[in-house]
Amino acid sequence: MSSVRLYQIVKTFLHFGLDEMVPAKFLPWYAKAARHSIFWLRNKHKDKPIEQRFRLAIESLGPVFIKFGQMLSTRRDLLPPEFADELALLQDRVTPFDGEAAKQLIIHAIGQQAFELHFKAFDIQPLASASIAQVHTATFTDNGVDKDVVIKVLRPNIAKTILADIKVMSLFASVVARWLPDGKRLRPKEVVAEYRKTILDELDLNREAANAIQLKRNFSQGSEYDKVLYVPEIYSEFSHKNVLVMERIYGIGVGEVDTLHQLGTNMELLAQRGVEVFFTQVFRDSFFHADMHPGNVFVDATNPADPTWIAIDCGIVGTLNREDKRYLAENFVAFFNRDYRKVAQLHVDSGWVPVNTSVDEFEFAIRTVCEPIFNKPLSEISFGQVLVNLFNTARRFNMEVQPQLVLLQKTLLYIEGLGRQLYPQLDLWQTAKPFLENWVKEQMGIKAVFSKVKENLPFWNEKLPELPDLVYDYLKAGKENQHQQAQLLALLNQQQAANNQKLVFGVLASGFTVATVLLFGQQHAALALLSGAMSLVFTVLALKK
Questions:
Q1: Which residue ranges run through the membrane (predicted)?
Q2: 129 is in an annotated binding site
Q3: 382 marked ligand binding residue
Q4: In angstroms, what CA-CA distances link 366 with 339, 405, 471?
Q5: So what's the pLDDT on residue 79?
Q6: Fewer CB atoms inside 10 Å of the end CB: C or N, the chain?
Q7: Is 120 marked as a binding-site residue?
Q8: Which candidate, 174, 194, 193, 192, places its Cα nearest to that of 184?
Q9: Helix (H) or strand (E) holding 75
């Protein structure tokens, strides 16, 4: 860990007065003395609220901390609303690095000959610059056909910078966990660990390429959802750990609502399709884009009456196993029907809360949180916020953090925010309810049984010829086991009988030994010798047993 970098971070935090987040009464005397000793580092932003100073400090520390702030802004289950809202203002555009340096990194990854043969009109000026990478445009030539592409390249030495900064973050997380009054509930160490995993995954562009290919395939299966989401083509043969080549898209930024309105885009359909995209990824595919903020989502309005969503930057994806999907879908449906008892029972059955949790108390806590929300019209209820409230309530009952649910919550908040931005009248509940009810029926009804049988037919078709042999082997093994068990039982009976005899002989030997001592004491020498002989005989018999 660089001492210069640590000093820079401490200096930034103190210049923005972030030490005030820890009340003085919780600080030991030596911490207060250390703070007063660096008197030249004073709060220079006393006129700003603490949450704004927190955001500005993170912003001034550079790309790694900016990315951390963006991730932190999605953890509304941990942060006060004013902090989450302030951190959400962090932009994903940072100062780009030198375009010539980027070109050399790309050539080094792709190869000089391949680059000159396939890539023309490379633009030195980046199209976009983000926290850990930047994007350049070029023309890709293959068999005489030109295609517009973008080339994403990681910042040089970014991995080293990230690891160094994460070490510093871990240090501050330990301080916050120990000294901040709400430190344990905020779980800063776990948050930093989650961030470390997330950002290190993003440093491997081969992983992002594979995620994008998978997501594109999921929405190209001939189903009714084919046209609701488009994922740009990935040129994987030219992609490497630090370079990603993909098709350039010309969609409209999802935040450009005025432009979409001017084109006559069907905003209601677009918003509904956003909801369908989310639930399809989660419940049909168990593979969802978990970073769908406005910078990663565009709209293809070529046909305004039939708009299509476009998703880029698949560095972060989430997955759910079969059990999580089923419990989650049933939870949603129970919420739609305001069946809080079932919600509580599902949390216990799924293992999300301890098995000894009182279902009655849990149900009452959920009802207390949710009933005031449901008094509003459905169109005014935030589905994502209900999910946040549910997780907060469950955490009071010692619900363990489920990483896959945190990503899900974050994605749902993004999707709902985008949907309401495009079409404020969006009733997410009514849009999602039929989808989820149908999914639950398909997974738990007669159709699900036949689907599962059909799915397992190749396995049983392979194993069926072996079935008679397996039955014979099982019966034969059972007979042999029965014979072995009979032998073992007989042996145990013999050992038990021997132990019983040993005990009897031991008791007799002890008795004659006591008698020998007493007889010698009363000067009955002959009887004492006889008693001693009997004690010796029974001792030998006991030892032999």
A1: 503-520, 526-543
A2: yes
A3: no
A4: 10, 18, 51
A5: 66
A6: N
A7: no
A8: 174
A9: none
Q: Is 313 left (phi over 0), alpha (psi -120 to 50) or beta?
A: left
**Cβ neighbours, 10 Å, residue 146:** 11
pLDDT reported for residue 225: 45
Q: Are 139 and 119 in contact (CB under 8 A)?
A: yes
| For residue 217, pLDDT beyond 50 | yes
Return the active site residues. Answer: 291
Considering only 86-95, 159-168, 420-429, which range has the smallest mean pLDDT? Answer: 86-95
- Whether 220 has a binding-site annotation, put simply, is no
135 is in an annotated binding site: yes
User: Is 130 assigned a ligand-binding role in the annotation?
Assistant: yes
484 is in an annotated binding site: no
| Residues 467-514: tens digit of each pLDDT | 777 777 777 777 777 777 878 888 888 888 777 777 777 777 788 787
With CA atoms as reference, report the closest residue to 72 among 174, 195, 172. 195
Gap between the Cα atoms of 208 and 289, Å rounded: 11
Q: How far apart are CA 140 and CA 121, in angstroms?
A: 9
pTM for this model (two decimals) = 0.67
Cα separation, 195 vs 277, in Å, equals 26
Identify whether the C-beta of residue 69 lies closer than 8 Å to the C-beta of residue 59. yes
- If you average pLDDT over each of 302-316, 409-423, 523-537, which comes out highest? 302-316
Q: Which two tokens stand for residue 536?
A: 């010796």
Sorting pLDDT into bands at 50, 70 and 90, what band is 33? Answer: low
| Beta strand segments in 36-80, E | none
Q: Are 525 and 518 in contact (CB under 8 A)?
A: no
Structural contact between residues 192 and 170, judged by C-beta atoms closer than 8 angstroms: yes
Is 127 assigned a ligand-binding role in the annotation?
A: yes
**Among 166, 176, 169, residue whose Cα is nearest residue 31:** 176
- The pLDDT mean for the chain works out to 77
Q: Which helix (H) or strand (E) holds 95?
A: none
Task: Give the integer Cα–Cα distance in Å for 154 and 204.
Answer: 9
The alpha carbon dihedral of 47, 50, 55, 59 has a sign of positive
Measure the CA–CA gap between 419 and 435, rounded to whole angstroms: 17
Residue 145 class from Cβ within 10 Å (0-12 exposed, 13-18 middle, 19+ buried)? exposed
Region 347-363: what's the mean pLDDT? 82
Q: Is 228 annotated as a binding residue?
A: no
Which amino acid, one-letter code, is at 96?
Answer: P
Determine how many CB atoms are found less than 10 A away from the CB of residue 469: 9
**Residue ranges of the alpha helices (H) in 397-466?**
403-422, 428-444, 446-463
Please state which of the ranges 113-117, 211-215, 336-340, 413-417 shows the lowest mean pLDDT: 413-417
CA dihedral 538, 540, 542, 545 (to 10 degrees): -140
Measure the CA angle with vertex 146, ends 140 and 147; round to 5°.
60
